[in-house]
Amino acid sequence: MPRPIQALIHPAALRHNLARARAHAPDARLLAVVKADAYGHGIERVYPALRGADAFALLDLAEAERLRALGWRGPILLLEGAFEPRDLEAASRLGLWHVIHHEAQIDWLAAHKTDVPQRIFLKLNSGMNRLGFAPQALRGAWARLDALPQVEEISLMSHFADADADAEAEADPHAAGALPPRGIAAACARWLDATAGLPGERSLANSAALLRHGRRPLHQAAAAAGGPRPEAGDAADTLLAADWVRAGLMLYGGSPDHPRRSAADWDLRPAQTLRSRLIAVQDLQPGETVGYGSCYRAARAMRIGIAACGYADGYPRHAPAETEAGAPVLVDGLRTRTVGRVSMDMLAVDLEPLRAAGRPAGVGAEVTLWGEGPGGSRLPIDEVAEACGTVAYELMCALSPRVPVRCLDEDGADPG
């Protein structure tokens, strides 16, 4: 028989989280972000639950091909645009929208011979310093695009570096004014200054910005960093949610500002569960150690269980190995912790909390690494990620291909 580890995808949770995203921006349209194979969940698995979105956003042409093969005829946005000139041929064939974030992409588009109208999202670098035009270069890029006959419509977008922080400008008390202001307030101020008077729809908010600041007027957020204040009736005084929101992590049940607020605080449900079973039990005497490197030493007599899950399955090897805290885990729905170093195929868990609760666990007991557990129990992926010094995005995306994945029915049943 196969190893007992498996991942479960919860379509009902995806639908619920999509509805929560819409509730936070009822007047905006929604781009469901499915990059990195839908954050490790699988584009084909999430599509039926997310096709109620207004559009999809992703990175590469192969994923766009898969969406079209599923029957999606609506908009698809390439978040990083074309990587080389020939990508534009496939983008036109597939009817894709694409981001323009550097001058070379404009050159490629100018040379692209097509009868397919091009919908462009022109990106501003508002402080992230990854992709996008500098504020002083944005208008020149817009003018170049506007002059191209291939371009049907130009929208404007940016991506915030500090959307999970407060809207007020973050000041360094030791900088004595030498450093530029940072934080989402400063980014909003840059955005308003750079885009003032330019036509086109806007897209600013990812999951963090949508949940934390989506209903806040842009000028109000920017004012905290000394940004411009709107005149009465100024049409530019729109909400930060703007015309298009880009929902990513929240669709899959992760909190974009954990630990400040949990997924439950945002009424988000886990879309992925990773579960396994105990395949062995060991009784330790005081002073005995667990796992490679003998990192964990038992301070007292204790029982541990060995779960069929390791770093080759996508569980983080850097989970705490030497401390009493470990990483959180559920065994038969009760919360406990990992002990010792995570191996390629196995990890050890402390079974003493179950014995203390009068529910001793043995071989075959269900182990929830994250997600939904038995009896209504739940282990947020954000908590596991925090304990392991990483983020929920990484755990979702790192799920190994060797882990079998099942997509549950809408009522949560396993179709087998």
From TrEMBL:
One of its GO terms (cellular component) is cytosol. The gene is alr. This is Alanine racemase. Catalyzes the interconversion of L-alanine and D-alanine. May also act on other amino acids. Its cofactor is pyridoxal 5'-phosphate. SMART domains: Ala_racemase_C. The lineage of its organism: Bacteria, Pseudomonadati, Pseudomonadota, Betaproteobacteria, Burkholderiales. The modification N6-(pyridoxal phosphate)lysine is found at K35. Its EC number is 5.1.1.1. It comes from Aquariibacter lacus. Pathway: Amino-acid biosynthesis; D-alanine biosynthesis; D-alanine from L-alanine: step 1/1. The active site is at K35 (proton acceptor), Y292 (proton acceptor). HAMAP family: Ala_racemase.
